[in-house]
Every structure is written in structure tokens, then in C-alpha cells.
Amino acid sequence: MPDLWNQFRQQMPVAERWAYFDHSAVAPLSLPASRALVDWADEMASNGEANWSVLRRRVGKVRESVASLLNCSTDEIAFVPNTTSGLSIVAESFPWQPGDNIVLPANEFPSNALPWRNLINRDVEVRAVPCEALGCDEIRLMNATDEKTRIVAVSWVDFATGWQRDLDLLADQCHQRGILLCVDGIQGAGVIPLDLQQSPVDFFVADGHKWLLGPEGAGILFIRANHLERLRPIGIGWNSLKSAGNFDRSPFGFDDGVGDESSDFRIVEPLPPQSLKNSAARFEGGSQNVGGILALGASLELLLSCGTPAIWERLCDVMDRQLEVVTQCGGRALSSSDNRRRSGIIACEFPNHSPQDLRDRAMQYGVILSVRRGYVRLSPHVYTNASDFERLTDALKGTG
Fold first, then answer.
1. Which range of residues forms the domain containing residue 135?
2. Is 23 a member of any domain?
3. I need a labelling partner for 200 at 20 to 30 A (CA). Which of 208, 247, 266, 369 fits?
4. Is 373 within 8 Å of 347 (Cβ atoms)?
5. Closest to 203 measured CA to CA, from 226, 232, 224
6. How many domains, in total, are found in the chain?
7. Same domain for 180 and 313?
């Protein structure tokens, strides 16, 4: 579908200046996302809160787009500021008991490590499993579990090597042992197909600023419906309630609004569980990053118009070409080329050349790439074309 990808490229202004191979870091905004941000800013500058209810409904439409992307219910989706905050919600709201443990790979990105490590002072044991160069396979992770393991937390795709984990296999192995699976999905969401009706992942978190081509500060949290009541409500605010937007009601449940002035104080009762939203949105707390969410929604519409299966097929073709370029330029790719393990990330090395020097050299040729764990990391997208690879080849020539 060459015309489709050319049209997609026209929606990426970054392509006019850069050959962008760094979507696994911070991706450039799509044109629809950029326009959505500008439109929101204009709306707020011109009207303030006059159209607040309209904006709330538009946020609801974005929630529907997220549910469509992941094939889940809108009630299972919460908007979060970033991946870290989404994982922290799961970590802090889970009903841990002293002596419980969590298992995760030792080479996780900090977002999927520190929220769990922070539980140690609550008498939760954190088990970090050593990994091979590419990643940590599912069996090795499961071998670290026992009868006190409550959660296995993994990245869907390793941020440095692009190693993709088999979420179906991992979820099945976890559930056979009564363990839940929590996934940092930021390096796969939007480009690798995932059907949460079929894949029994329990929690899934991703920010929108990588493969989803949205802005920073607008992420998504999936909580499978049957786990919602298991989690302790945290971060509760006006937007957590079924009555969100009704500010005339007392937050303490006093029918008269403020209480009896003849008494020095009233004892406040716990918040009734039935007052909270019956959805993951109860964790959204207060005011949202409306502009960011609408921009994310605009990029989601662009991606959904292509369909994730077509996007994944195209990205695999792009990755094949990228592997050819790396080899032609004397490099060695570490990442897997197996479609079951690959992603949009390739980690590679060039003998006798500093990765940081190569990154600096690439920028001089108008090529953006990253360095992670001492390797050059390349991460194109579906709009990457032959001209981008020509520039990458020029940047890497003579490095072998």
C-alpha cells in the first residue's frame, strides 16, 4: 500500500527536515496531533470554560479510540500523565500482604522498576531476574516465582534491544499459578497488534509520546474489569466520583453542605465505595491534560485509519530494510529478526566506533537516533522511506 504510507508521511512534518530513527525515545508529533493542541489552546484562549462539557465529551471519544486500539471496554481505560504514574497506581493500590513478592526482569526501564522497588518498605519482596543480552525469556521469569508471588511485571518490548515478549504465554503461565501480569506497553502500543479480549493481560500501561505519535503527558492505563474492585482507591478526587462535575455536593457527605455550626466539628465517614465511578476512570482524580489527550486522540485516529495489522506488516518491512543498511555499513545488529520477538527497535554496534560519536555524526547528516546500553538504537516508523535510509547510510558510511 505505497500510497497509504506516502499519505501517512505527509502527516508527519518532521520528515521535511529529519530522517527520524528515534521513535522509541520521544517521537515527533503527527500533524493531526499538532493541530489538535493548537485548536485546544485557541479554544481555551477564546472561551475558557464556556465549552467545558464539549471538551469532556471529546475526551470520552478519545477513550473510545483507545478501547478500539486495544479491543477492550472503555470502562477499563484510565488516562494517566505517563507510564510511571500508571504503573504506580497498580503498585500502590494492590492489596499487598507482608511477605508477598513481585518478579520482574533486572534490566527494566526505570518506569517499570522504581514503582515496585518503592514497595520494599511495605515488606514486599522485589525479585529482579538477570537477563541475557537480548532480554529475559518467559520461562526464566516464571522460574523466579513462588506461592507468594502476586504480580509479574514486564515491558512488552525491551527499550534497548527491541526484544518482544510473548504476552499470551506469560499471562497463561502467570494465571496457572494465580499470579497477575502487569505490562509496560509503551514500546509496542500502536504498532504491534494487541487484542486484550484475547490476550489475558491484567494491567497494561503506555504513554502516548512514542509509537502512538502523541505528546508527552498523555498516557493510558488498562485495568481488566474483574480487578477494579480489588485495587485500593488512591489519588481520589472530584473526577473519581460518579457525580464528577457537581461541585454543590459536600465532599464529606453532609446533606446541609458544611455541617452543624453548633458543633466544633463532625466526624467524617469513609467515602462510600458506591460513590466512585464503576470504571478505571476512578483513578483519574482531578483535572486532566485535556489538550494532550485530544492530541493523542488525533494521532490515534491516524493510526486506526490504517489498522494495526497493516501498520505492523509495514513496520516489519521497514525493519528488514534497516537491517540491510546496518549490515551494508559494517554494523552488527543484536536485535531479533523473528517476527515473534522483533519490534520497531534495532540495537546495533559498529566496531571501533563510539556509539555517542556515531549519534553526533548522524545529527550532522540530519539523522536522529539514540544510544542505549552502549549500543546504537534505531527505531523508524511506518512513514520512514527510501530517502531516510539513504541519509542513514550516508551517516554510517565508513564506520565498518
1. 34-235+274-303
2. yes
3. 208
4. yes
5. 224
6. 2
7. no
